[in-house]
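Notes from the 1:1 (GR / supervisor)

We went over the backlog. Supervisor wanted to see one worked example end to end before approving the batch request, so GR pasted a single chain during the call. The sequence is below; no edits were made to it. Supervisor asked that the structure be written out right there so they could see what the output format looks like.
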Amino acid sequence: MREARAVRAVRNIMRGLKGRLGGSVIAAGILLSAALLAGAGRQGQASFPLPYLLAPTATPTPTITASPTRTATATRTPTVTSTPTSTETATVTPTPTATFTATPTATPTCTPTPQPTPDGVHRTARVPILMYHHIADPPAGAKAVERDLSVSPARFEEQLRYLRDAGYQSISTVDLVYHLTLGTPLPAKPVIITFDDGYRDVYTNAFPLLRAYGFTATVYVITDFVDRGLTPYLTWPQIEEMYAAGIEFGAHSRDHPDLRRKSYDFLVWQILGPKQTLEAHLPAPVRTFSYPSGAYDQRVIEVLRSAHYWCAVTAEQGATHSSDGLFTLSRIRVRRADTLETFRKKLELDW
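Structure output shown during the call:
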């Protein structure tokens, strides 16, 4: 009877614990109870009360097993890779620069102009070659030399009027060469009007008067002074205009040095150089030369001949020329102080 009651009590306890404890605890309790009951049956009486025996000796504390937490795996989020958009790079289009094509300038060359072959006859001719420099009133404070070389426009016009009224006709130096070497006829009263240095007042003051009275002239130019555009001297357009109107042009060196006792190369530079420069601007060969300050020697004459000049004028006084003195042509200097009577006498003197 006692065992039966004990069994029933145990079952009831097990059913009560079943909802709260795990199966393993219940099974342990059953085994323990069975062992106790068996012992009780053998001894006849339990040595301690049943409730005490059935009370759990240790209440198992449920161990909370940490369920594996799903660890957030770092998912590689696809990075938005920006596809490079083809951005049009601003291309600097070079603006075409105006390319100036150099117009080829004809290199001035010495145009060989053979001197007329003399016919073997020795000739002389009396032809006054007048020598002027400035046709202008000298500026205030001018040196004595400059004042002496400056003939006023009014005095120059008076002299031209006299030449015209006296029956003089102007010729060129080339005309004189043809006459002396070949016997080419000259006017009854020939005169050659020359201007040394090529000052600008020859264009502004003398040139209009020459045309007004029907005369030509020969102008001797210092070419480097013209090239450099120095104010007192002629310009190339003025020279070209005067040449087109019948004015003859000759060389007066590059920069007006004393040519005596100089090297051959220096003389070529000073004699051939200005000839080439003038011929680059004028459509005809340059055939006449004026010695700077009237100074020359035999070597200068030799270089003049080799450069194909036909003649040269000096500063020596005289009016008579010969066929064997084409590179020593004398002239008559016209001074500021010359009166009309002095001018007339210079023309008529037999020198």
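Supervisor's comment: Residues 21-28, 30-69, 71-87, 97-111 have pLDDT under 50 and may be disordered.
Batch request approved.
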